[in-house]
Design goal:
alpha+beta; Inorganic Pyrophosphatase; 5-stranded mixed barrel; two-stranded antiparallel ribbon
Length: 203
């Protein structure tokens, strides 16, 4: 089985082999990137969004889970959120071997997440490990990840939009475990179905 045309990475791919715990991640940014790339929603191609605003780079692979959307149901899980951020659900993936290219797909095991408010909108970051990774592949919970690495992820998201003299716009409200992360993934899948009922259908 194959597709004659390249499927859209957000709408044309399934959410994963066994969501909400084993998911597909489309990688937009690697730890080696000083440019913030993101998928162009109309075309599905990876585009330059902006140079990284600060000197920090993401400590892990960073992308999204296909056929997910952060809207009402995701916002309902985030106290104080006025709504979702209107994007697919973000995911950070840890791997032992350096992966230095974006615009790729991988299978990832969900282990936890960060509950984030961005300008008052729910902007959760799912934390996962590369499936079948020789070092990380058996990890199933966030507390099995070294605290220093989780702290590094939290610091990145707290500061990567920060500009001198401007107020902070990102607030990390909670670090949560795999069960809570699964709730967020499921909510994002349902939000996607509710907002894009005629798209995809492969998840």
């Amino acid at each position: 089985m194959f597709t004659e045309w390249r499927p859209h990475p957000w709408h044309g791919l399934a959410s994963g082999p066994e969501p909400p715990f084993l998911v597909t991640a489309y990688v937009e940014i690697t730890p080696f990137d000083v440019i913030k790339y993101e998928v162009d929603k109309p075309s599905g191609y990876l585009k330059v969004d902006r140079p990284q605003q600060t000197s920090s780079s993401p400590p892990t692979l960073y992308g999204f889970i296909p056929q997910t959307y952060c809207a009402e149901l995701v916002a309902a899980l985030c106290p104080g959120a006025q709504g979702g951020d209107g994007d697919p659900l973000d995911i950070c993936v840890i791997s032992e071997r350096p992966i230095n290219r974006a615009d790729i797909l991988l299978s990832a095991r969900v282990v936890g997440g960060l509950q984030i408010l961005d300008h008052g909108e729910a902007d959760d970051k799912i934390i996962a490990v590369l499936a079948r990774d020789p070092i990380w592949g058996e990890v199933t919970e966030l507390d099995q990840i070294p605290l220093a690495l989780v702290d590094r992820l939290a610091h990145y998201f707290e500061t990567y939009k920060q500009m001198p003299g401007q107020p902070d716009v990102m607030t990390i409200q909670e670090r949560y475990d795999s069960a809570r992360a699964a709730e967020v993934v499921t909510a994002a899948q349902k939000d996607y179905t509710n907002h894009f009922p005629n798209d995809g259908g492969q998840s």
